[in-house]
Amino acid sequence: MNKVFQIITFLYFLLLSSTVLAQKGYKIDVEFDNYKEKEIILAYQILNRYPVIDTIPINKKGEYSIEADSALVAGIYMLVLPPNNDFVTLLINDEEQRFSVKADFEDLTGTIKIDGSPDNARYYEYMNYLNNKVEGLSKYRLGAANTFDADEREKMHEQFNVEVREIREHQMQLIQQYPESLTASLIKAELEPEIPNFAGQADEV
């Protein structure tokens, strides 16, 4: 009985070790609709510099795939798309280095789908949420600028500030829910300095 238990234990740890080894390194599969350039570029963001990690050639399926046995350093990366250097931001942490990216080149942020990296999926959900909110903020700014009615202008100011508070609450919720994520780190950087409330005359907009 002890011998059987020892064999089972050995096989369990062998399987566990194989799984850990299999997860080492990174692999990123990329597919862009409406885009068929011969290669894209993986770059690493360091402040305002973007050193190239590698170029990724298109394969027979019309997709791009890059992998290596060694893991990427955690941080912010970019998939750069020639010839106009459009790009997709990728958040790379120590645990999520094997995932797939799919998007339509005509609307990269709005259509992007990432499978295998919850932090990246979360980041793009946040970016799309923010883009929608920015449209509302612009509407209220323009509304305040284009009206001569004091009550209407005040209403626009109030709506603008409501939108700002909703954005801030959403940001704080993400930080509290996922405090160790790169998404949270980027949001924290955005929170400094504080977004001011909008108030003033139409000619100050």
Structure description:
The chain has 205 residues and is an alpha+beta fold. Helices cover 44% and strands 24% of the residues. The chain is built from five helices and eight strands; from the N terminus they run H-E-E-E-E-E-E-E-H-E-H-H-H. It has a four-stranded mixed beta sheet with strand order 4-1-7-8. It has a four-stranded antiparallel beta sheet with strand order 3-2-5-6. A hairpin with a 4-residue loop joins strand 5 (75-81) and strand 6 (86-92). Helix 3 packs antiparallel against helix 4 (150-177). The longest helix has 28 residues, at 118-145. Mean pLDDT is 85; it is low at 3-22.
In short:
The protein has 205 residues and is an alpha+beta fold. Helix content is 44%, strand content 24%. It has helices spanning 2-22, 108-111, 118-145, 150-177, 182-190, and strands at 26-33, 39-44, 52-57, 64-68, 75-81, 86-92, 98-104, 113-115.
How would you spell out the order of helices and strands? HEEEEEEEHEHHH
How far is the first residue's CA from the last residue's CA? Answer: 81 Å
Report the strand count.
8
Number of helices: 5
**SS strand fraction:** 15-25%
Average of pLDDT: 85
The whole-angstrom Rg is 23 Å
Sheet with most strands: strand arrangement = 4-1-7-8
Shape: elongated
Oligomer: single chain
